[in-house]
Amino acid sequence: MEDVNLTSNHTNDIGNKAVMIIDAYKAYSSSIVVLNGFNMNVEKGTIYGLLGPSGCGKTTLLSCIIGQSRLDAGHIKLSINKKKDIGYMPQELALYNEFNILETLHYFGLLYEMCYEDIISKGEKLMKIMELSSVKTQFGSLSGGQQRRFSLCVTLLHEPSLLILDEPTVGLDPIISASIWEYIKDLANCGKTIIITTHYIEEARQANTIGLMRKGVLLSEASPVEIMTSCNVDTLESAFLILSQNHNAVNTNMDVYRKKCIHPSTTTIEKSSFFEYTRFKAQMLKNWYWSIRNWEIIFFICFLPIFTVLIFNITIGRTPSYLQIGIVNNEIPSPCPYESNNICDNTIPLSCKYIHEIENQGLSLKYYNDVKLAEEDSIRGHTWGFMQFKQNFTDMIKVRFDDAMDMSVDDLEKSSISIRMDMSDFVISKLIEGKLLLSYRDLAINFKSCNKNSSVVSIIRTLPFKIMQPVHGSFNINIVFYGSAAIISILGLYSTFLFTALSINMDINSGMIERSLASGLSISEIFLSQFLLQFVIMLFQIGSMFILQFVVFKHPFLSSPIWPFALVLLQGICGTFLGFATSVTFDERLTTFIGICLVMSQVFLGGIMWPLESMHSILKTITVFLPLTLSIEALRSMNARNWDIFHPTVMHGFQSILGWILFSITITILSLKFKSVIKRTK
Ligand SMILES: Nc1ncnc2c1ncn2[C@@H]1O[C@H](COP(=O)(O)OP(=O)(O)OP(=O)(O)O)[C@@H](O)[C@H]1O
Question: How many angstroms separate the alpha carbon of residue 59 from the centre of ligand 1?
């Protein structure tokens, strides 16, 4: 919403006038000058018909009168100074299709600080006048004419003294239009002032005064009869044609225009206060109705993180089953015919003992008598590779480790296990490689129970490493645990961003925000109520993600839950503010693209797919400024390393997310200040 400049020396002492506009200027750009020295006077208790061709600036003018837009220069003086003394009916209906009539009346009534009984009695009276029936009917299911009449009911509900009606009869049949005009005339007789715009020029004959607007100025302002008499015609349409032809519009000289705009514009309408409990309650009530009517969206947003965490844990990091490798064992006819696999039994060949450990690692084996066959099967994709034990493998390996220096190349070859793998799949080939090494390690462990001096044991003990307990983490390393912090953080930020941007955009597109702001609601109340709704959803989302991840799927969680929870909550809050910032700065489509960019960049550049350490130093510096990079690292460090809040890594994570929250708030404030954003794009 644009701010409205309020200067104290412009009082609303304007005698019998309800509205005075003095020397008004307004342009959207150098090519769209809408008001160019515009003057207008509306007497109290009269109907003022504002006429002009489409696009001449009627809506812009009305929006300046109600304090939604600001003039570039000039003065607006009103006999009233509070927004709630104005009843504004926008050109578009700007009401929720999903709400029923009672809910809509209840919302707007509360915005105007009316009590429930008052809302009901006045609402029913108006409904009768406008010939509308059940209050339980959904607004969206009313006919076009009924919707327009109901929109007028909403405008009249709080009995305002100044009514501003933007094309109230557009698209209505003549009978309904006539009944609306009759009612408007009754209101004027009761002392209300009405400004009405219409495309139907002849309809405006019923107004007390008519203002003919063209190219940013008022061509004439008088009673319909006076206008027709002065032009010597008997229809308003002809009069308008003559006046337009006589008017020599000059192209606006922008330098002159800018000089005019040196002095600030003024208006006597007050800005809505920052916070008013009743209006906030109205907004919360609206959010409640909205959530019930759009339960699918609420359900999706609440369960999106749960569903994703479930899928993540169920699908990623699991060991692929039925990984088959081929075995060619020239030492003994395959498969090994031994009943027991006693590791200490020296009569069992070493190849059989090793094959047994491989089976224990969950790999399935396919035996071949010929290397050629094993190779062909592997090329066709029936196995992930094959290994070959040579003849006398056990004997040769003993020699290799007892007396390797004197061995021939041929014997050395016989003491090796040849492995040929399908390396086209990175994950599976690395997994099989790891399993083969692990089965070798297990073979070694099992041998410990046998003769410790055996030469075979010495094979196992050839590596000069003693692997000790890890500093952080466990031997049972898992990609899912690595991604744990990232998945929670991305869901925490993205789902709140999505929900906020979606609901604010829906409100902007329906025109509901514009209409509510004209009814006195403040931007702070809109954001606060949206934030509260979002906060409740966020608590549910984060709570359920934590329970699933750390209780059900037992991801490492070494720290106290307070700081990790607080960090994810801040990430959610950041998503909410980013949602505000983008939805008030950009339109719906751009907001969607920004959301997608946010997730993609975070996934690919934020150290989620691959460690940051592998990135080019310039890219690494850039990624630090993404919303989640540092806070994901902080969360991972708290959970897996038990680092506290004072550790620099954790501290930087908190600082980074707080910085992004501040950045989003700043963008929101700047957008609201410099752009007329709480408006549908025309
Ligand atoms: N937010 C905006 N940004 C840029 N241009 C705008 C904006 N709002 C209106 N305009 C332009 O200003 C001019 C006046 O528009 P406005 O809606 O005030 O006219 P109008 O007389 O109410 O038209 P209509 O009778 O068709 O509703 C139009 O050329 C319109 O395109």
Answer: 7
Please tell me the residue having the least CA distance from ligand 1 atom 10. Answer: 28
């952080």: which residue's tokens?
472
Q: Which of 253, 305, 670 is nearest to 489 (CA)?
A: 305
Which is the closest atom of ligand 1 to the Cα of 57? 18
Q: In angstroms, rounded to a whole number, what is the distance separating the alpha carbons of residues 211 and 43?
A: 12
Q: Could you read off the pLDDT of 426-475 as tens digits, one per residue?
A: 888 888 988 888 888 777 777 666 656 655 555 555 555 666 777 877 76
User: Ligand 1 centroid to 241 CA: how many Å?
Assistant: 21
Q: Which domains does the chain possess?
A: 17-251+262-271 (3.40.50.300), 279-315+478-679 (no CATH), 324-458 (3.40.1710)
The upper half-sphere exposure of residue 26, i.e. CA atoms within 13 Å in the direction of its Cβ, equals 28
Query: In Å, how far from its chain's centre is CA 367?
Result: 55
Please tell me what DSSP assigns to residue 551. Answer: I
* Residue listed under structure tokens 């400024």: 625
Quote the pTM value: 0.81
Which among 489, 470, 634, 612 has a CA at the least distance from the CA of 549? 489
Alpha-carbon distance of 78 to 14, in angstroms, equals 7
Residue 139 Cα to ligand 1 midpoint, Å, equals 27
Tens digits of per-residue pLDDT, 511-558? 899 899 999 899 999 999 999 999 999 999 999 999 999 999 999 899
Name, in order, each residue with C-beta under 8 angstroms of 386's C-beta and a sequence gap of 6 or more.
Answer: 325, 326, 327, 328, 368, 371, 374, 375, 377, 378, 419, 420
Q: Provide the token pair at 95.
A: 């009401």
Pocket of ligand 1 (CB under 6 A): 28, 32, 34, 52, 54-60, 91, 676, 679, 682
* Residue nearest atom 4 in ligand 1 by C-alpha distance: 28
Q: Which helix (H) or strand (E) holds 650?
A: helix 648-674
- pLDDT, one tens digit per residue, over 277-293 is 999 999 999 999 999 99
